[in-house]
Amino acid sequence: MSPARSLPFFALSLLAFLASTPLRAANATGTLVNSATVLPPTGFTDPNPANNSATDTDKLAPKAALRATKELQGDLVAGREATYHITVTNDGERPIGEMQMYVDCETFEVFDPAVIAPDGKLVAVFGDTFSGPRVGRGDWRSPVLLVGAGDAATPIVWEHAGGPDPGYARQLRSYIHDAPPWRAGGISTVLPSDLLRVDDMLYLHVIVNRGFPHVIWTEIWSSADSGVTWEHMGEPAKFPADLYDGHAQLWSWDYDPVDGWVYVVSTGFQRDKGVILRRVRPEGIGIADAYQAWGHSGGAWSWGERATIITPDGETWGELSFRRLGPRMWVLGGFMSSGYALGYRTLSTPATYLAGIEVQTPVAGCGWDEENHVDCRVAQLYGGYLLPGSRVGAPGGVGLVVSHWNTRRGWPYRVMQFRTTLRDTTTVML
Question: 211: how many CB neighbours lie within 10 A of its CB?
Fold first, then answer.
């Protein structure tokens, strides 16, 4: 998607909108007749009253709000994969942006973290969103949510917005986007970290900011209606910014129905730290004190210790994506800031020893003059969330959401869906 943007989230992400057709239904058919008659004012005589009326008749045909163009990238060679660039343009009143698709790097411009909701729909949450053509222009909302259909293997089709207005992506909870001298609540923005589904509930971890990159606290919201309405889980669901020396600000999490734990990986919002691991029972999600950290003490790793960084020395991370893809198959990765790339490890358990596992980097960062999405090079990239339906070891089986933002120009500011391949490296165990 175009100005949505993800959020790469993330922290900062895409602009997301829905189209509207205010004058008539897009699928209207039949004949539209418009007639007009002009009458002279009182006291005046019209010398030719026969030409005072006119009628215009138009035949209606269904008209979509979106139009798409498809362009072949490179040459079409028999027996080889073909790559197309698809651009979707909105003919409606509100901007919806564009979609792109590439093959192994396949790309659909879409969103940030996403899960399948209890009603079977794909829900995706976005960070800082603006109604104008670039960052900082127009109506500012964060977070917002879109509802649609699709997965790692298929393009996303958006159906409506989550939250209070299905026709427009509005802010999920009410607050004012404040700025120095901080007289309107002291919060500049609230950014989504990651979505989680457990049974019939959705949970959203968000980061409360007072100017980039200063985090004042994080907190958890819940939804019992597949993302339509969201509730704050209360003071016990607030986490201080300095928890574990700032390593618990930016989360990704997933639920293991086999052992009944929700596993949480986290790092600092500033992209200068390693990753820690915690777990919590579903009934304790909204209670900060219920979380157990994975730590090293007395020569051994165990739960209930002070959190120990699980990533190797020298690695720093930003936005994280941690997903259970099936029994004994987890993927941990996201934006590896120390490598300026999207990096991923495949794990057999959340507590797998990471130092011995290769980081796979399917998408690399680059300068704006070097960008080539077909070759998986993205300028000023971040994010890197896994899409539902991803499969390790299958060609093109992993769907990734990749954000980028031209901070000098304010545009592009968007997220893109890539399709790539991750090898199974779950052989090294703790």
Answer: 15
pTM of the full structure: 0.76
Detail the DSSP E strand segments found in 120-188. 122-126, 129-130, 140-141, 144-151, 154-161
Task: State the residue for tokens 């002291």.
Answer: 186
Nearest residue to 161 (alpha-carbon basis) of 221, 108, 98, 230: 230
CA end-to-end distance (rounded Å), the chain: 40
Residues whose CB is less than 8 angstroms from the CB of residue 68 and which lie 6 or more positions away in sequence, other chains included: 86, 87, 88, 89, 99
Strand partners, 320: 334
Domains of the chain: 107-420 (2.115.10.20)
Q: pLDDT (tens digit, 9 = 90+) per residue, 336-365?
A: 999 999 999 999 999 988 988 999 999 999
pLDDT in tens, 182-226: 999 999 999 999 999 999 999 999 999 999 889 999 999 999 999
Query: What residues form DSSP beta bridges with 39?
Result: none
Is the dihedral angle over the CA atoms 373, 376, 381, 386 positive or is it negative? positive
To 10 degrees, the CA torsion angle through 360, 371, 141, 131? -150
Helix (H, G, I), strand (E, B) or coil at 344: strand
CA quadruple 98, 142, 217, 303: dihedral positive or negative? negative
List, in sequence order, the alpha helices (H) in 250-402. none
From 196, 152, 147, 187, select the one nearest 168 (Cα to Cα).
147
Looking at residue 105, its amino acid is C
